Every structure is written in structure tokens, then in C-alpha cells.
Amino acid sequence: MSPLAQLLFWLAVLAALLAGLWLLGPVLTSFIIGLVLAYFLDPVADRLESWGLPRLLATALILLVGLGLLVLSVVILLPLLVRQANVFIDNLPHYVQTLVGLFEANAPQWLKDAVNESAQMPDGESAAKIAAAAAGWLAGLLRSIISGSMALFNVLSLFVITPIVLFYMLNDWDRMVALIDGWLPRHHAETVRGIARDIDTAMAGFIRGQGTVALFLGAFYATGLILAGLNFGLLIGLSAGVLSFIPYIGTFIGGALAIGMALIQFLPDWQYVLLIAAIFAAGQFIEGNFLSPWLVGGRIGLHPVWMMFALVAFGYLFGFTGLLLAVPLAAALRVIIAHGLKLYLDSALYHGERRAEATEEDTPS
Hints:
By secondary structure, this protein is mostly helical. It is 87% helix and 0% strand.
């Protein structure tokens, strides 16, 4: 098979995978979470196996501990989180209207004029009315999503399908890797293994490293906001931490919600608002200077601009599932492109006919 035919074949495979992801994205979340958790916990299973435990027993032990922690968190945290989410959604229009009122009362006139002009307010309508109406629509949408049958299906699939996928993937991980390795063309096996090792390094740096960072940030934000006395501190803190698995998203959403709630709850006591902002600033400082360099490091190898582009592109095309996969897939794609670029720079296509002729002359007859 010629290089062009090989390239077309792999492009067709990539297109088929992306089409499948686009078509099945809404139902793939539970499977993807199970796959990500299996990849995250594979080193733990390997360590238990090195201590003499059979792979099946190591997998069962990890799953039992994980399910125990899940049940404990559900019993302790889920009722409180559901109650806070319901109260937050019920009061969302009032909160938005209060924030708009604070903006109208305290913002400079030029900023209010700029906002009104950019929003193109119709005659007789105020920003507060429109924002309250939009917030009411959003609250209704969130409530329908939470209480809808599809939400119930997604929750059930998350608690049923994800553990099953996790168990089988974690138990069979090494066998699957060996099986796929046996499918590689023998004359390209070492090259493909080298690319796979680089992809594993990049993806491990994100999935395992960023996953650990997200767990820490969720606990840090929730504890800090609760101690600061912020309403819905547990809900906002845990949400910000979990969403921190997706770069930029968790910090932006969590920080905006926390500071907005602090403005509503504490003004005119600005010191509490600054305290809430300081909690998120401290979390970002710890993440940026200690956790991410230690746990993630430079193994992802993605420029921040390309990372943001991947998040926007995959999120637009595949929704929330795309956001979960954006950075790992972009990191894998970077490795493949870097390898292809290296082959191109070493080829006669780059150096021209003279390089090819020189190579032929140097070859012994």
C-alpha cells in the first residue's frame, strides 16, 4: 500500500470515529467516564498486582472501595446537594435580578450605556426585566433537565453502566493492550509503539494528573466556601472542582457563581466578597504553582491557545462529551502530528530531488 493510500485509509478511520462520536455522543458519557476511570486507576491495579494480588482480585478490590466511597458520598452529600440545587434554581431569577440591580446602582454610566447598546434593548424594556426573564427560562430548563426522564436515564446509566465498564476495562486492560499490539504490522510495530508511548505520556499527564487536581480543588473550594459562610458553598465548590477537569471551565463557572452569590449575600460588607475571591485565587495559585507542575507538568505539550481552541471546537461539535475528550484527543493528535512532521522533515519531499539523489549515490551497489 502506497503512503498516500495509507494516509487516506487512516483519515477515513478518523472520520468514521468522529462521526460515531457525533452521532452517539449523548449516550457515550457513561462509557467514556468508565474508560477514563479505568485509565486513571490502571497504575493502582498494576501496583496491587505487583504485590501479589491476582488482577481480578485487584480490580474487585478497587471497585469495592470506589463503590463504598460512592455510596458514602451519596448518603452524606447527595441529599444536601440536591436540596441546595433545588433552592438555587428556584431563586435563580431573583438572584439575577439582584445582580442586575447592583450593576445598575454601582456601575459607571459609560459601562451601562455600553452594555445597553451591545444588548440592543427594546423600548420600554430594562436590563433587569430581560435578565430576570432569561433567568426564569434558564431555571425552568435546568429543572426540566434535572427532573426529566432523560436525566433519570443518565443518572441510572452513570451508576450502573459506568461501574460495569470500569470493572471489565480495568480487569482486561493489559490483555487488550497486548491484543492490539498483536494487530500491528510487524515492520511498523516499533514506530507505532513509540507513538503510543508518547500518546500515553501525554494523556496520562492530563487524565491522571488533572483528575487528581480536580479532586483536590473540589475539596478545597467546598471547604473554603463553607467556612466562609457562603450560601450553596458545598454545591458551588464541588461543581467548580469537578469541572476543573475541563481546563478553564471549572474556574470560570465556579468563580463567577461564588463571587456573584457573595455579592448578593454579603454586600455592603466587601471584605466577605474579597474573601470569596481570595479562596478561588488561592486555589488557582496552588494549582498553577504546585499541583499542575507536579502532577501534570509539561507532558500534555499543548499551547494554551490550542487547548482553548480544542475545548471550543469539540464542545461545539460533540457537547459535554466533547469537552471531556477535547484535551486528551488534542494531546494525542499533537503527538501524531509531531511524528508526521518529523517524517516529513526527514523525507525527500522536504529536501528535494538532490537529497534523494545523494541518498541513492551513497547507497552501495
